[in-house]
Amino acid sequence: MYENFAFPERDKAVTGYHFSCENPSHVLCLIHGIGEHAGRYKRMARILAEKGIAIVSMDLRGHGISSGVRGDTAPRREVLADVDALIMRAKTLYPGLPITLYGHSMGGNIGLDYMMRGSKNYIPAKYIISAPWIKLVMSVPGPLLPLIRTAAKIAPKATISQNIDEKDLGNPDYVKPFKKDPLVHSRISLRCAVDGFDIGTAIYKGSHPDNGGAADKPFLLMHGDADKICDVEGSRRLAARLSQRENFTYVEWTGYCHEIHNGGKEDTGEAVIEKIGQFIVE
């Protein structure tokens, strides 16, 4: 259902995924979350393909079949350069077609960061951010964060567990086999954690640098109110700040868990994927 490809320009640090479709009219560049991989989005790709939407994605550094220490998606400047390469590959595969950048969870943190301070040479037509890491439900105690910062300077690639419970992700029929997936892991490096904390906190406070390159682009932000991993309050705070912005839409899904595209305890999440498709093609 997909083909993998290399990024020679990124020293093969990341591996790409191409979910093609017949008669494509739009392209989605997808950034996955912590501990998972782009191959977990096959169902989304199948549904969007019916709408003429192809997906070009990658396994982030330290994830899936990409190289690196598991969970070491850092330093952020290199990760943003990886997103540049992803968008360029989509442009090469589908010249002239509009590109939407989608990021989920930690990928949402990366996507927001890219939207605010990414290269102005690679600005997508639209943005979709799903359940972003802005504020965590289980926040790091204040006294512990300086210790993590110090440790990250000494051993930046050292990893800690991020303890994601499969039951908190979404409908078990679509989430499984998360824990049994050999490409899924439970690690995050210290420098990746610090990047995520700092950027999420800055976005929450409204102090993250913004070069304004994407200010006029359509932006869909979504979150489930039953998310036990990334606090919905982070998205609510961002949505309140952007409420007067033209082309901005915030959707909160009642009863949906962290992976809103995989629904809640009973919902399938297909309505979320339909919303994604509708937003892309409208």
Structure description:
This protein has one domain: 3-Layer(aba) Sandwich (Rossmann fold). The chain is α/β, with parallel strands linked by helices. The chain is globular, with a radius of gyration of 17 Å. Helix content is 32%, strand content 18%. The model has no long low-confidence stretch (mean pLDDT 96). It has 8 helices and 10 strands. Keywords: Hydrolase. It holds the Pfam family Hydrolase_4. Residues 23-262 form the Serine aminopeptidase S33 domain. It comes from Anaerotruncus colihominis. This is Alpha/beta fold hydrolase.
In short:
This protein has 282 residues and is α/β, with parallel strands linked by helices.
Q: What features would you highlight for this structure?
A:
Rossmann fold, two-stranded antiparallel sheet, AB_hydrolase_fold, hydrolase activity, about 20% strand, hydrolase, AB_hydrolase_1, about 280 residues, alpha/beta
Topology:
Layout: E1 3-6, E2 15-19, E3 26-31, H1 42-49, E4 53-59, H2 76-93, E5 99-104, H3 106-117, E6 126-130, H4 144-154, E7 159-161, H5 172-175, E8 187-189, H6 190-205, E9 219-224, H7 232-241, E10 248-253, H8 270-281
Helix pairs in contact: 3-6
